[in-house]
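Supplementary Note 3. Input sequence used for the single-chain structure prediction.
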Amino acid sequence: MLHDNKEKVSGELMQKFERLCTTTNQVRSIVHHLSAVNETVFKGITKARSHASEVTKRMRGIRTYSDAFKRIAPYPASSTPTHKLSIENNAAEQRAKYASARSEKVESLSRNAMEIIDKINDISAFELSAIQTRLHKLGKELRAINRTSGGQSERGCGSEVGHKTLYSLLEVSRVVEEVSNNLNTEDAKKNWTAITSNFTVLQQTVTSIEENVKETEGALGAIEDVRKNVASVVTSELESVRTSLCEARRKLGSATAYHVSMNQRFAKADEGVGEVQKQTTAVQKLVKQVRSDAESYRHAEKTATGAVEESKQACLKAEESAAEGDDEAQWAVKEACEAAKSVALERERVAGEMHRMREADRSAANYAADALRVRLNADAAKKTAAEARANIEELLKRVDGQINEVEKRFNDTVASLENLDFTHAPTACANTGITAPSDSIEDLAGAVVNFRQFVAETTDKNFSVIASTLKESEKRMRNELEGVRKAAEGAKSMLVRATAIRELSRAQRGTTRTALRRAKKALREAQEAADRAASGCLPLHKQVLRILTHLS
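The predicted structure, written as discrete structure tokens, is reproduced below.
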């Protein structure tokens, strides 16, 4: 009878022991499940953070492309790509904000999940400790009974009752319910009810974490699509701007042809100024000669006037000397007075040239002044044209500087971008030369106006007026070079007229010299006749002439 009672007690204790072993493994299953949940939460955080990092990277790429577009797009920026980029950027910003909010939500939920897991682990550890205490007590009782009855003395519940991994809230709830029933104490039930509630919240939290991770992943995909769209717009615009920039550079190549034309015009102007200097020097020389001819004429006129007076005196002297003389004396008187008339006649010839000589002298004086004025005007015109030319060269230098700056900015921008798929190399022009360069200032100014679209107002505030200033400077230079040309023509014409005046003055000087020579000869004859009248003696040749006259 006693033996039967011990067997019965031992069997009951064993059943309790086995139930507690089962409960122990179930609790360990719950702990193991919490480790899996913890890993799930950690993976969710990792994914969310990775997605957030990728969102930041994609957004940085979008902003880089957008900033690049602003730097390289013509000024003002093209409306269609700008509008499209604005829409894409706004969409990306909204997605980025949403992804950031979802990522922060995952962080918050993960912290909550960790707290719940810690709380469940604490309760599980406490309960497991209580169960282990009860198992230890039951083990002692079993060993005591078994020693007296000769049965099995040792019994453990280690690994022979394995634990399974729990995946669903339903399974966890079932296990918790079984554990609670097995323990069958108020404190245990209270604790395991708390575990059940926390498991419910934990499951909801993990589900929310997974949903938010998916949302961040979806936002990342949408942002990547935007990045690709923006990259496509920027790539297309870069190629378009490079084409426009190359065309602008090609048109601005007319500056070279314009420089050649301008240099040729200045070379002609230099020749013109040289001709003006040469011709005005020749005019000054001719004027000097005309003035010398005029001075000679004035001297001849004075000499001729004196000769007239002297011949008159000779005539009077002869008349006084031969008042009562013979025929020879009267003949001498007649010759003296005839000679005096010849002197007076030559004096009239000299006087007859007076008006033309004075006109020649006056014209020569005017030519001298005009030659000086033409020379000064030519020099002044060339100087003014040179100033206009310097202004044009400075403007073109500024334009060239802007071209180089724009191209450098463009090339640096292209070099700073990554993962762009270009159809054509965007950093070089296929052909920057022009087949038929134009030297027209209108074409050059037009090219400057066309290039202005690449220059922001902040870069060169006065760039917008370069084209008009170029045309104004060209007009000024052209007018002044025309002045040089006209001065050269005027100097040439003046030289022709001065040469004609010189020829006239030279002829008048010759005529005057001839008349003066004849006047001097007539004066000598008058003086000789007067002397003969006074002495009554005729020259031998006249005596012979008189004898021949009488004989006939």
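Residues 150-154, 159-164, 432-436 have pLDDT under 50 and may be disordered. The first helix runs from residue 2 to 72.
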